[in-house]
Specification:
With 376 residues, the chain is of the alpha/beta class. It has helices at residues 70-78, 105-111, 123-126, 133-145, 149-162, 168-171, 181-193, 211-228, 239-242, 263-268, 273-280, 344-348, and strands spanning 28-39, 42-54, 59-63, 86-95, 98-99, 116-119, 199-203, 231-236, 248-253, 256-262, 331-334, 337-339. Helices cover 28% and strands 20% of the residues. Helix 4 (133-145) packs across helix 5 (149-162), helix 5 crosses helix 7 (181-193) and helix 7 (181-193) packs parallel to helix 8. The protein is globular and about 70 Å long. The structure holds adenosine-5'-diphosphate, iron/sulfur cluster (SF4) and magnesium ion.
């Protein structure tokens, strides 16, 4: 079933959104988004021309190491950027054909939470410790749907059952600290879907949870998506977590999308060396940490992104061309796949050989003196 129940909704539509249909384009269409943070240390270029889209019923993972711009992308879509120091300096975020960046704040507020909802890693701090969980979920229905206390309470319990919280009627009377991490995240998911959003953005929703619970939460998100037809954006640093859930994956590095592909294609054969590194670092069952150990070094300081390909100081395939501007553009490879690497075709064909062994502590600058040209 892929329909969205909108009965009883008291949403006042921002101009133009109601006239949209999927024939008009993507449900969410982010074009050339640029975000910078103006800090004392300089301007951090957090998002540099990111473009991507999401349709109804689709799940898109945004994958990348810490600091690659995943959360800032979500914040820009939601309109909850930390301003100052963060500013959207370019681009468009079309939702149902309307550029959210141009909407007045009161209209944007109606989109936020109701039509585009978001959940975060830290469910405990997102919940109010002094109110019961049932009361907090019911509050969504009281405020946004005008339900009376008793109807809202019943709706809250139903929703708790829907996210598989056992003994929901009883547990509705518990406080957040009486729930386990996984159950708290279920409560957050319940609150996020209470108003039948068309898009749910989940920012590292399972990072604080153990592996078994992670899988259960992912399964729940997948089920809810199939039920409601909502679009799902899953933000994660862990490729392993989104393996079975995402239809497509956008790989981000230094505020850019460096590869975009269907999950299966991406797993089968990465088209970008950074994706290859992430794939190599999926934690095995016998490992206890989710550390990305396979890629040496750290992502660059975003106030000083290296010239050329921003991944070049850490890339074992980097040649001269990789260290000079312009950066490799994101090129369509066909079949909905794209990659931003000068040597994508060679990598896909299995013909790209490493040219340098990088030090474990390689950083973005200074640029290491790689041995050029070997094996080319
Ligand atoms: N509140 C902030 N103040 C200054 N810079 C920020 C802030 N939030 C994010 N940034 C910058 O944006 C970059 C991307 O952050 P973020 O999107 O949170 O990364 P992640 O991919 O881990 O979610 C950070 O590395 C930092 O340079
Ligand atoms: S462009 Fe060069 S440095 Fe960048 S990922 Fe490709 S091979 Fe590596
Ligand atoms: Mg983040």
């Amino acid at each position: 079933m892929r329909t969205l129940a909108k009965q009883n909704s008291t949403i006042v539509e921002p101009t133009g959104m109601d006239n949209w249909s999927p024939d008009h384009g993507h449900l969410l269409d982010v074009r050339n988004l640029n975000v910078e943070f103006r800090t004392r240390d300089g301007v951090a270029h957090a998002i540099n021309g990111a473009s991507f889209h999401l349709d109804r019923g689709e799940s898109l993972a945004i994958l990348g190491e810490s600091g690659s711009g995943k959360s800032v992308t979500a914040q820009a879509i939601m309109g909850i950027l930390d301003t100052p120091p963060g500013y959207v300096t370019g681009g468009e975020v079309f939702f149902r054909g309307v550029d959210l960046l141009k909407l007045p704040e009161d209209q944007r507020r109606r989109v936020r939470g109701q039509r585009i909802a978001m959940i975060f890693q830290d469910a405990l701090s997102a919940l109010n410790p002094v109110f019961t969980v049932g009361w907090q979920i019911a509050e969504m229905f009281r405020i946004h749907k005008g339900m009376n206390k008793s109807d809202a309470h019943s709706a809250a319990i139903k929703l708790m059952e829907r996210v598989n919280i056992p003994a929901a009627a009883q547990r509705a009377g518990n406080f957040p600290h009486q729930f386990s991490g996984g159950m708290r995240q279920r409560v957050m998911i319940a609150m996020s879907i209470a108003l039948d959003p068309e898009i749910l953005i989940a920012d590292e929703p399972t990072t604080a949870l153990d592996v078994t619970v992670q899988a259960q939460i992912m399964e729940l998100l997948k089920e809810l998506q199939a039920e409601t037809g909502m679009g799902l954006i899953l933000i994660t640093h862990d490729l392993g977590v989104v393996a079975d859930v995402a239809d497509r994956i956008n790989v981000m590095y230094a505020g850019r999308i460096v590869e975009s592909a269907g999950s299966r294609e991406l797993y089968a054969r990465p088209a970008h060396p950074y994706t290859e590194g992430l794939l190599d670092s999926i934690p095995r069952l016998d490992q206890t940490t989710g550390e990305l150990s396979a890629i040496g070094g750290l992502p660059p300081n975003l106030t000083r992104i290296p010239a050329g390909c921003s991944f070049n100081p850490r890339c074992k395939y980097a040649r001269d061309i990789c260290r000079v501007d312009p950066e490799p553009p994101l090129v369509e490879l066909g079949g909905g796949r794209s990659s931003a690497c000068h040597f994508t075709h060679e990598l896909l064909a299995g013909r790209l050989a490493p040219v340098a062994v990088l030090a474990e502590n390689a950083v973005a600058d200074p640029v290491p003196a790689a041995e050029e040209g070997i094996n080319e």
